[in-house]
Amino acid sequence: MAGIKVHGTPFSTAAARVLATLYEKEVEFEFVPIDMKAGEHKKESFLALNPFGQVPAFEDGDLQLFESRAITQYIAHEYAPKGTPLIFQDSKKMAILSVWTEVEAQKYDPVASKLTFELVIKPLMLGLVADFAVVEEFEAKLGTVLDVYETRLGKSKYLGGDCFSLADLHHLPTIDYLMGTQAKKLFECRPNVSAWVADITARPAWKKVVAMRAH
């Protein structure tokens, strides 16, 4: 059995981020499903892996990690020679990549995650009605972020540079959900963003993550 274990659910955006990274790096791993509806993520055995009771939890031998972006950084560095190079060895290129991973975490994700909650999780998973006043507010906020992306992607094929990297990959889980909602118009009406979304969502590694949700 592989030394790497990922505890979570592929429906979690954070867990999907880690799974996509492992598939890009072509690293073998064991997936340990966590039934969140049954509260397994709040049980003592899981809390020993992630004390915040959130998925994913990650093990590589005796190393235990939580927080998805920390996990993806570890995978990209530890398994650098394998699969897709998701980081750069050049310090200046890596600095630019790091800017855009921070943009994703600090500017994009809080807004995109709120929209995902309102447009996907509430109606499809919780049986609740979306608050469309909140949706309108956060669509405007996401549009402001994507305006910056549109400019950036007019100068560079990917956010972090000329090659696909963690800066792009980290966006995939929320983009995938939002492209199935009314919010897709925010991506589609910006030509550079639209081309970027089509590119990264077509990657074989991401398709493997999406396929996991069907099982």
Rg over CA atoms: 17 Å
Which strand order spans the largest sheet, edge to edge or round the barrel? 2-1-3-4
Low-confidence stretches: none
Task: Specify the biggest β-sheet.
Answer: 4 strands, mixed
Residues in helix, %: 55-70%
Task: Please tell me what the overall shape is.
Answer: globular
Structural class: alpha+beta
Distance between the termini: 21 Å
Query: Would you report the number of β strands?
Result: 4
Question: How do the helices and strands follow one another from N- to C-terminus?
Answer: EHEHEEHHHHHHHH
Beta-strand content bin:
5-15%
Q: Provide mean pLDDT, rounded.
A: 95
Total DSSP helices: 10
Descriptive key words:
alpha+beta, four-stranded mixed beta sheet, 10 helices, 8% strand, globular
Strand-helix topology:
Layout (H helix, E strand, L loop, with lengths): L3 E5 L4 H13 L4 E4 L10 H4 L9 E4 L2 E4 L1 H11 L12 H35 L6 H22 L12 H4 L2 H7 L5 H5 L2 H11 L2 H9 L3
Walk me through what this model shows:
By secondary structure, this protein is α+β, with helices and mostly antiparallel strands. The chain has helices spanning 13-25, 44-47, 68-78, 91-125, 132-153, 166-169, 172-178, 184-188, 191-201, 204-212; strands at residues 4-8, 30-33, 57-60, 63-66. Strands 2-1-3-4 form a 4-stranded mixed beta sheet, covered by helices on one side. It is globular, with a radius of gyration of 17 Å.
